[in-house]
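ingest -> fold -> write
write: protein_1
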Amino acid sequence: MKRFNNWMSYSFDGVEYSNKKNPTSIFSINFNNPLTNKNISYQDALFNNARIMRDMFNEPFDVMLSAGIDSEIVVRTFKTLKIKHNTFIFRLEDNINVRDVTGAVNLCMELNIPYKIIDFNLKKFFNNDALEIYNLTYAPRAARLPRFKWMDYLDNIPVFCDGEPYWKRELEGDYTKKSKWKMYFGEDYYSIGCYANRINRTVISDWYEYTPDITASYSKHQLIQSLLDDKLIGKQSSWSSRYKLHREIWPEVKDRVKLIGYEGATGPATDMPQYLLDFQTNICDNATNMIYTYYLEEFNFLLNCS
């Protein structure tokens, strides 16, 4: 997916926006244009990001909603701005993702927005379709492959709510000394966009990264600055802090347990079906999964946003 003003892009083997030609193709991130709106607030960055999409593409959008905070914020932003969109929730067989579906439905009811549930047979997908799709993308994570197939169920521009800024503490559990923090950009995050390019489908796969403003203003926010300055003892990443940040815009945003979409009714967050784990081990683990990390000063330099 090309971003607004091509501010950031990805390459495989040095060719911008090329397809991944083999499992070991070298992935890289390119920062092409510096940030121009340096003083925008995080709220304004969210709203402007959505408005630019509305002006660049045809409404309505087809938003993929899970029980995660990332897709919740996209839906809340579109609703606040009255941007036309359809809300889709994919339901897997045997209650595999029942907690995810329940959370997504509850959010739609809370926001009073219509939604559509689409039943999707995950086991059948991995038996019949996953290998062919993998061979088009060499995506490094099996759990993402079903999302590629979901595009076939949608008539408008699909919106996958990836790209939310993610900071992680370098020293992890060691709080005896001050740590640096790193922002993460992983190859896997861009696999949906790579597949869309492969099949010539317009898709917004990394909603939060369409403009540079969200990533930059998020990192400048006072709460995140306190995190990066190691003032919030016990925090290992920006994961939980973002709830408080978003409550400044929508006070009703709730903290929630992180789900990955395969938990079942009672299983732990690490549970996945065995056939998915086997596909990961036998197929996807053969593919590279490059991850690039940047300290705050490096990131500010790349975007010229200090």
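write: protein_2
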Amino acid sequence: MEFHIILVEPKYAGNAGSVARVMKNFGFRKLTLVSPSFSLNDEDCIKYAMHAYDIIENARIVDSFDEIAKEMDYLVGTSSIESKDDKHHLRKAFTARKFAQEIYKLEGKIGIAFGREDYGLLNEEIKKCDLLVRIPSSEEYPSLNLSHAVCIVLYELFVSKYKPVEIALADGKEKEKLYEFFDRLLDEINYPEFKKENTKILFRRVIGRAMLSKWEYHSLMGVFKKAIQSLKKT
């Protein structure tokens, strides 16, 4: 699968640079600009791309939406406007998250087209798309900045495939040992008897919410052991 980010008639070089930056943040590299209003060596383009200017340098420029659309195996449009009922299909859209969950079932070249900063994709362009995607946002101001919209869509695509580092959690026996040492610590500091039960429950709930890793468990156990040993010497 190969994703192509398509900016249709972008007006502002800074937006293109920012798009390149978020593309690199999330591991996307193929950028196409349809009739941009600036050159790729524009000062703002370079400045906003930061360390992702190589994406700008390797970007394609084409003259029309149709030129890049016909190269894609699957073409996705984006819009802040959504069809309000099931009878109107042109702007019936997946959310960005739903799109990210489903798109990896496909193969080939996947084009994701983002429209003009002022009025988005034209109806004729949307008609040529296989799917429309939108980012749920406030009705008061639903239209996002171009680079922000690209960032959210690419983030969802990245996260749907992201595999976090596996962390081994403390098991039941280890947690019980930790509670035992906490109880001993309360005894060593002569914690008021009438408060003990509630404090033990509080500590258990705190540890339960924390979902301790084994490393965190051993660190806390080390602290409790040292504290108890020190108190015994006094």
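write: annotation protein_2
The first helix runs from residue 13 to 25.
The CA atoms of residues 44 and 131 lie 32 Å apart.
pipeline exit 0
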